[in-house]
Amino acid sequence: MANKKQLRIGLVGTGFMGRTHSNGYKRIGDFFPDLQYRPVLKAVCARREDKVKAFAEQWGYESYETDYKKLIARNDIDAIDICTPNDSHAEIAIAAAAAGKIILCEKPLARNVEEAQKMVDAIEKAGVANTVWYNYRRLPAVTLAKQIVESGKLGKIFHYRANFLQDWTISADLPQGGEGLWRMDINAAGSGVTGDLLAHCIDTAMWINGAITDVSAVTETFIKERMHQLTGKVQKVGIDDACIFHCHFSNGSLGLFESTRYARGHKALYTFEINGADASIRWNLHDLNRLEYFDHRDESIVRGWRSILVTDGDQPYMKRWWVPGLNIGYEHSFVHQVADFLESLEKGAPCEPTFRNALLTQKVCEAVIESANSRSWKDTGVK
Length: 383
Ligand SMILES: NC(=O)c1ccc[n+]([C@@H]2O[C@H](COP(=O)([O-])OP(=O)(O)OC[C@H]3O[C@@H](n4cnc5c(N)ncnc54)[C@H](O)[C@@H]3O)[C@@H](O)[C@H]2O)c1
What we know:
Layout: E1 5-12, H1 16-31, E2 37-45, H2 49-59, E3 63-65, H3 68-73, E4 79-82, H4 89-98, E5 102-105, H5 113-126, E6 130-132, H6 140-151, E7 157-165, H7 186-189, H8 193-209, E8 212-220, E9 225-227, E10 234-236, E11 242-249, E12 254-260, E13 269-276, E14 279-284, E15 290-295, E16 305-309, H9 331-347, H10 355-374, E17 378-379
Parallel strand pairs: 1-2, 1-4, 2-3, 4-5, 5-6, 7-12
Antiparallel strand pairs: 7-13, 8-11, 8-17, 9-10, 11-12, 13-14, 14-15, 15-16
Helix pairs in contact: 1-9, 4-5, 5-10, 6-8, 8-10
The chain binds nicotinamide-adenine-dinucleotide.
Nicotinamide-adenine-dinucleotide binds next to helix 1.
């Protein structure tokens, strides 16, 4: 550690993502020992003192704060990591940028394009390093999918198809809003499955297959009113419970995307399939180490879908882990994102997706919602 440069982390939010990020920072020294930067868990922030104190003790943070403004004001913090619900991303990021902090922000970048644009303007004015946690890019099989597409093996791409299916909001008794249920509240989340789940699918899709130029969408809110946890009153539900859209990519291919929290039996089924003139690939989060590949150029008598277990040392990220044949998990995508971010600091290069890149996904999400609301095609403005 003595000859390492410290990146002193101030993490905001101690929920699901607070844990995945903390785990990511803690694994770096053991599995990426060659990196020059080492994360130091300097301080964590959440509003309730009992909870944040317990989190700091459990995860090994040196200190804690209950107000993010105090965290940002500290001179012993280099980077602010935003793991709070979507409605606070903009205010925290803009304040952190003004203080000259490095910023890592959870996805979606913001609730809407207007907020996201202000965030991009703030960090670019400040000139601070930044990244957005679209972590699925860093699962080895997904990274390999991108490499295969870039190699040209698939030939001309015709179709990109993605789903993200869950089933946890089917009960009409489920309240909306507040701790743990902010995703159900339009004011906190900005949108429903579009910003929460499809944003991941859109980020991966544009990373692998290029710009989504225009969209035609349909959304549905199956349960129209729910009790709000903070007010105790039954209120209109503003989020999209389900969203289906189709689109054009700038490379001439067609896209088809579906997300819902009403697909009984599915907890977090993210899948994508890409069909090209010569070959196809498909991937599924429930079997995340595996990439399936079909090549029409194979001899016909043995032609079929190959099942590639992405665990070899020459496949993305895997030389960092165990031996060929042994799987890694969901949490490793966050370790990889930390590692890539630290390497980008070393090189003085951007760590994609930057805020500017995540703004493009935000634009597609907004076009999707506008298309559904107006029952018409919408240009995304992404090229
Ligand atoms: N990359 C991914 O795959 C992924 C997965 C889940 C969530 N997310 C994103 O991460 C963010 C957080 O989601 P989560 O599931 O961890 O939520 P969560 O509800 O589990 O945790 C949110 C935390 O933020 C804290 N918080 C809220 N407002 C705060 C404030 N003003 N100051 C300090 N702390 C505050 C809450 O107390 C809680 O500890 C969201 O933007 C979400 O979209 C990304």
